[in-house]
C-alpha cells in the first residue's frame, strides 16, 4: 500500500508543480487585482499540498516522527512570513514572496529526505535570516545615504575576501569559509551596492576604471582562493552593470574578450581549473578521481527520467556533496525531469520579476542594484544547473534557496528583502506620480473655472 502511495505521489506533486509554474507566468499578464489575489492564494494552496504530499511520503517510508515535527515547524514558518509581510509591507510583491516559499519548500523536502539534521539546521538559519530580512525593506526606503557609501562597500569586500584567502582552510579544494561562514555570499551584496553607488550618476572613464580595478581585485582574490563559481558571478554582475550604466557595446565587448582571455590564462596557470575542465570534457576517463561527482550526477539524472523514481526511492546519497552542490541531481532522480524543468522555470520567473522591477523603477541607484542582484541570482542558478548537467564545467556553487548552506540561504533572503524594498519604493514612486497628476488636473480645472467666472 505504501509503495502505491509513493508511486502516485510523484504524479500528484508533479501536477501541482506544473500548475504552480503556469501561475507564475500567467499572472504577469493579469492586470485585474482581484484575479491576481485569487491566483496568489491558489499558489499558497499549491505549496501547501505539495509539502503535505511530500512529507507524508517521507514519513511513510521512514516512520521517523521527527519528520512530522519538522513539517509542522516549517509550515509555522511559512505562515508567519506570509502574515508578517502582509501586515508590515502592504505593497510588497506577493508573487516574489510565494516563489521564495516554493523554492525553500523544495529545498526543505529534499534536505529532509537526505538528512533530517541538516534540514532542521537549515530551517533554523532560514528563520533567523528572515527575521533580519524583515528589517531590510524599510531600511531601503528610509536610508537615503546608502548611495554615498561607495568606498565603504569596496573596502568591506576586499578586506573580507583577503581574510578568507589568508586565513581560511582549504575545503573541497578551495578556500571558502572563515569560522563556518562564507563571506563571498555577503560580499555579493556589497559588491552590487559598490557598483551601483559608483555608477548611478555621471558615468565617465575614471569611474569605469575604478569599477574595473575593484572588480578585478574581487575576482582575482576569488580565483586565487579557487572559488571559481563566485568569481564568475562577480565578473558577470560587473559586466552587466557597466554595460547598463554606460550603454556602450564596445565596453561590453572588451569585458567579454578580457574575461575569456583571463579564463584561458587561468587554465594554464592553475591545476584545479584544468582538473574541472578535464572532468567536464570526459568525466568517464577520470571517473575514479575528479570525474566521480559529475558521473554520479549524470547517472542520477538519467535514472530519474521524466517522472522520477519517487521520494525515498532513489540513491542520491551516492553523489558526493549532494546537499550542497548537487541537490538538483537529487531532485531529478526522485521527482523527475519534468519537475526539474518546472523548477528552472520558477527560477526564471523569479529573475524576470526582478528584471521587471529594475526596468520600471526610475531611481537609477535602485535600478542598478535590482539589475545587479538579479544578474547574480540568474548567474548562480545557471552555474549550478549547468555544472551538474555537464553543460559547463562544475564551479561549486549552490542552488539559491534550495541547496543546503547557511551563508548562501541568508544571503539570498537578504537579496530578496532588498528587492522587496525596491519594489515597495517603486510603488511609492507610482503613487507619488499619480498624486501629482491628480493635483495637476485639479489645478487645471480650477484655472478653467476661474477663467469662465472672469468672462462672466
TrEMBL record:
<feature type="transmembrane region" description="Helical">
    <location>
        <begin position="40"/>
        <end position="59"/>
    </location>
</feature>
<feature type="transmembrane region" description="Helical">
    <location>
        <begin position="338"/>
        <end position="359"/>
    </location>
</feature>
<keyword id="KW-0472">Membrane</keyword>
<feature type="transmembrane region" description="Helical">
    <location>
        <begin position="152"/>
        <end position="174"/>
    </location>
</feature>
<feature type="transmembrane region" description="Helical">
    <location>
        <begin position="368"/>
        <end position="389"/>
    </location>
</feature>
<keyword id="KW-0175">Coiled coil</keyword>
<feature type="transmembrane region" description="Helical">
    <location>
        <begin position="401"/>
        <end position="425"/>
    </location>
</feature>
<keyword id="KW-0812">Transmembrane</keyword>
<keyword id="KW-0133">Cell shape</keyword>
<dbReference type="Pfam" id="PF01098">
    <property type="entry name" value="FTSW_RODA_SPOVE"/>
</dbReference>
<feature type="transmembrane region" description="Helical">
    <location>
        <begin position="250"/>
        <end position="270"/>
    </location>
</feature>
<feature type="transmembrane region" description="Helical">
    <location>
        <begin position="186"/>
        <end position="203"/>
    </location>
</feature>
<feature type="transmembrane region" description="Helical">
    <location>
        <begin position="215"/>
        <end position="244"/>
    </location>
</feature>
<feature type="transmembrane region" description="Helical">
    <location>
        <begin position="65"/>
        <end position="85"/>
    </location>
</feature>
<feature type="coiled-coil region">
    <location>
        <begin position="426"/>
        <end position="453"/>
    </location>
</feature>
<dbReference type="InterPro" id="IPR001182">
    <property type="entry name" value="FtsW/RodA"/>
</dbReference>
<keyword id="KW-1133">Transmembrane helix</keyword>
<feature type="transmembrane region" description="Helical">
    <location>
        <begin position="291"/>
        <end position="309"/>
    </location>
</feature>
<feature type="transmembrane region" description="Helical">
    <location>
        <begin position="123"/>
        <end position="140"/>
    </location>
</feature>
<feature type="transmembrane region" description="Helical">
    <location>
        <begin position="92"/>
        <end position="111"/>
    </location>
</feature>
<protein>
    <submittedName>
        <fullName>FtsW/RodA/SpoVE family cell cycle protein</fullName>
    </submittedName>
</protein>
<feature type="transmembrane region" description="Helical">
    <location>
        <begin position="12"/>
        <end position="28"/>
    </location>
</feature>
Amino acid at each position: 500500500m505504501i509503495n502505491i502511495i509513493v508511486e502516485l505521489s510523484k504524479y500528484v506533486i508533479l501536477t501541482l508543480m506544473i500548475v504552480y509554474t503556469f501561475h507564475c507566468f500567467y499572472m504577469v499578464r493579469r492586470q485585474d487585482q482581484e484575479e491576481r489575489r485569487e491566483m496568489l492564494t491558489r499558489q499558497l494552496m499549491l505549496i501547501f499540498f505539495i509539502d503535505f504530499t511530500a512529507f507524508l511520503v517521507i514519513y511513510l517510508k521512514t516512520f521517523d516522527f521527527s519528520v512530522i515535527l519538522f513539517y509542522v515547524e516549517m509550515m509555522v514558518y511559512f505562515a508567519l512570513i506570509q502574515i508578517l509581510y502582509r501586515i508590515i509591507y502592504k505593497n510588497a510583491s506577493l508573487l516574489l514572496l510565494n516563489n521564495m516559499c516554493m523554492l525553500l519548500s523544495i529545498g526543505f523536502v529534499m534536505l529532509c529526505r537526505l538528512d533530517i539534521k541538516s534540514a532542521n539546521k537549515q530551517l533554523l538559519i532560514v528563520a533567523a535570516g528572515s527575521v533580519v530580512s524583515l528589517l531590510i525593506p524599510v531600511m531601503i526606503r528610509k536610508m537615503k545615504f546608502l548611495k554615498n557609501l561607495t568606498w565603504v562597500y569596496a573596502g568591506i569586500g576586499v578586506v573580507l575576501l583577503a581574510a578568507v584567502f589568508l586565513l581560511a582552510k582549504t575545503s573541497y579544494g578551495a578556500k571558502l569559509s572563515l569560522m563556518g561562514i562564507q563571506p563571498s555570499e555577503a560580499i555579493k551584496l556589497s559588491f552590487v551596492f559598490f557598483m551601483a553607488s559608483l555608477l548611478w550618476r555621471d558615468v565617465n572613464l575614471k569611474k569605469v576604471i575604478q569599477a574595473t580595478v575593484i572588480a578585478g581585485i574581487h575576482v582575482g582574490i576569488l580565483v586565487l582562493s579557487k572559488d571559481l563559481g563566485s568569481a564568475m558571478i562577480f565578473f558577470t554582475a560587473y559586466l552587466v552593470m557597466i554595460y547598463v550604466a554606460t550603454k556602450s557595446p564596445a565596453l561590453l565587448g572588451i569585458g567579454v574578450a578580457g574575461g575569456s582571455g583571463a579564463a584561458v590564462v587561468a587554465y594554464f596557470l592553475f591545476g584545479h581549473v584544468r582538473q574541472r575542465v578535464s572532468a567536464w570534457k570526459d568525466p568517464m576517463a577520470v571517473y575514479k578521481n575528479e570525474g566521480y561527482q559529475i558521473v554520479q550526477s549524470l547517472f542520477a539524472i538519467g535514472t530519474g527520467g521524466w517522472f522520477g523514481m519517487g521520494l525515498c526511492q532513489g540513491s542520491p546519497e551516492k553523489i558526493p556533496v549532494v546537499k550542497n552542490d548537487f541537490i538538483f541531481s537529487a531532485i531529478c532522480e526522485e521527482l523527475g525531469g519534468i519537475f526539474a524543468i518546472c523548477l528552472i522555470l520558477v527560477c526564471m520567473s523569479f529573475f524576470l520579476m526582478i528584471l521587471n522591477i529594475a526596468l520600471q523603477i526610475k531611481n537609477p541607484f535602485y535600478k542598478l542594484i535590482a539589475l545587479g542582484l538579479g544578474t547574480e541570482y540568474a548567474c548562480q542558478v545557471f552555474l549550478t544547473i549547468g555544472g551538474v548537467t555537464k553543460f559547463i564545467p562544475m564551479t561549486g556553487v549552490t542552488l539559491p534557496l534550495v541547496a543546503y548552506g547557511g551563508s548562501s540561504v541568508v544571503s539570498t533572503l537578504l537579496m530578496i528583502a532588498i528587492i522587496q524594498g525596491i519594489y515597495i519604493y517603486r510603488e511609492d514612486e507610482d503613487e507619488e506620480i499619480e498624486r501629482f497628476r491628480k493635483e495637476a488636473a485639479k489645478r487645471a480645472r480650477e484655472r478653467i473655472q476661474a477663467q469662465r467666472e472672469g468672462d462672466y
